[in-house]
Amino acid sequence: LAVHIQTSRALMVISLLLGFFGIIVSVVGMKCTKVGDEDPVTKSRIAVAGGVLFILSGLCTLAAVSLYATRVTYEFFRESAVPINARYEFGSALFIGWGAASLTVLGGSLLCCSCPAKERRGQQYYRQSQPSTAREYV
Predict the structure, then answer these.
(1) Counts of helices then strands in the chain (DSSP H, E)
(2) Which residues are within 8 A (CB) of 129 and not within 5 positions of it... i.e. 6 or more apart?
(3) CA gyration radius for the chain?
(4) Burial of 137 (0-12, 13-18, 19+ CB in 10 A)
(5) DSSP state at residue 133
(6) Which of 40, 54, 60, 113 could join 22 via S-S bond, C-beta 3.0 to 4.6 A?
(7) Which domains occur in the chain, in start order?
């Protein structure tokens, strides 16, 4: 295959791997899960790491799709013996790729916004040993 196709393929594989690891890290960083540390600050930092992985995944997808689209545009406008009706054009897969890349970057950005505020970083968080409904009032 051509070099631009192999490069796009490699970028998409890297994007898939980054997205997979981003999902795993983000699930560990969710406040509702019991996996990992119980500290909310640590959980939010783990979620931010998952967001960074999602942003990198989206950028790899964007680079792969844009590289292929650039090559298609170059081939379309290049003077060649191939008739105009036999040349490649943008297909729906390119638009789906651009949409997926933008949504992945947006989702990663939202995960990165879950970082705690500076004034709350140094505070200690304590869990109650019993739920409030199980307490006895004397």
Answers:
(1) 4, 0
(2) none
(3) 23
(4) exposed
(5) G
(6) 54
(7) 1-121 (1.20.140.150)
What average pLDDT does the structure give for the chain? Answer: 83
Contact 44, 10 (CB under 8 A): no
Measured distance CA(5)–CA(52) in Å, rounded: 26
> Under a CB-based contact definition with an 8 Å cutoff, are residues 42 and 36 in contact?
yes
Residue 77 structure tokens = 């406008």
Pick from 119, 115, 104: nearest CA to 29:
115
What is the model's pLDDT at position 39?
Answer: 81
116 or 14: which leads in pLDDT: 14
Quote the pTM value: 0.77
Contact of 97 with 64, CB cutoff 8 Å? yes
Residue 71 CA, chain-centre distance (Å), reads 25
What pLDDT was estimated at residue 1? 81
Q: How many CA atoms lie within 13 A of 60 on its CB side?
A: 19
Structure tokens at 42: 């640590």
Place of tokens 């989702």: 107
Token digits of residue 113: 């916004």
